[in-house]
What does this fold into?
Amino acid sequence: DGFPRRPQPEEVGMPEIRCADTGAFTCRAHFSAETMEDLLRQVAEHLRVRHDVKQPTQTFLNYCAKVAVPK
It folds into this structure.
């Protein structure tokens, strides 16, 4: 059709992170998403639900973005 093919998420490396990567060494939660924004949204929700962190700081979310690696 002449249009370039859109890369699939697995080809560009979806970001992923484990809760333990951020210092919660006993937590086995693992997250991946198509975008960093979606990944950080998942992490923030997990922090609220499982770790009783009402509002994650922007500093912590920035740290998570730096620690996250392509899948």
About this structure: The mean pLDDT is 87. The first helix runs from residue 9 to 12. Strands lie at 15-18, 30-32, 69-70.
